[in-house]
Amino acid sequence: MNSVAEEIIANLPPLRIPRLRHHRVTDWDPYFENAEGQGINGSQNVALHLGATALLDCRVAMLSGKKVMWLRRNADWASLLTLGNTTHISDPRYSISFQYPNNWRLAIAGVRREDRGLYVCQVNTHPPRMLVTNVTVLAPDIRIVDEARHELRDRYYKTGSGIELACVARPSCPDSRIPHPVWRKNGETLPDHVDVYHINGSNEDLVTKLYIEQAKKTDSGEYSCSVSQFSTAAVHIHVLNGKLN
């Protein structure tokens, strides 16, 4: 990080998050706008799905040569993400673009759980003007269960027995849509003799079942189900000769 960025962070004021409200312009200083061109200041909330691309908007009117920066902050630390059109973070998922006429848009590709938190768009007035965006990351709950709906991590079968597993995925909120879970064995596509079918679960659940009619020792391995590449559950299946203890 260069000396300019270090000086900016060192002189940041304590973070206070007022409620989002209309901003009445009484002078020629920069101010924040929403998409409808109404003046705002304070904070706003954004909910993002795991794996999506975050687009955080910061529309600044009457900028008049001032600098716009994006920071990530909490009560104890601040990290400079962008300054003007320049990115100051090594993570390639972050980028900044200027959307005409006044939107300094921060993009975060492939949102992760750890990306949740506070993002601050700040203009270097005195005192600085800030628009705080609180990012929440939505991730589906995903579980592998047996016939009795008990969650599984390891399961033992004897050769010739049937194997039936269910992958249950529940959206993080009622209005969100997620695809059906996808099954894999040892990270690869399932063998041809393994059947998969979808059923309707209770409430908002999506259920994808896996069935093997007559298990063989070669069916042992790790079976995983996932919704996209970010939410995954796995169970280790052991197929043994003879009786189970």
From TrEMBL:
Residues 30-133, 140-236 form the Ig-like domain. It comes from the Eukaryota. SMART domains: IG, IGc2. Coiled coil: none annotated. It holds the Pfam family V-set. Gene3D superfamilies: Immunoglobulins. One of its GO terms (cellular component) is neuron projection membrane. GO terms for biological process: synapse organization. InterPro entries: Ig-like_dom, Ig-like_dom_sf, Ig-like_fold, Ig_I-set, Ig_sub, Ig_sub2, Ig_V-set, Zig-8. This is Lachesin.
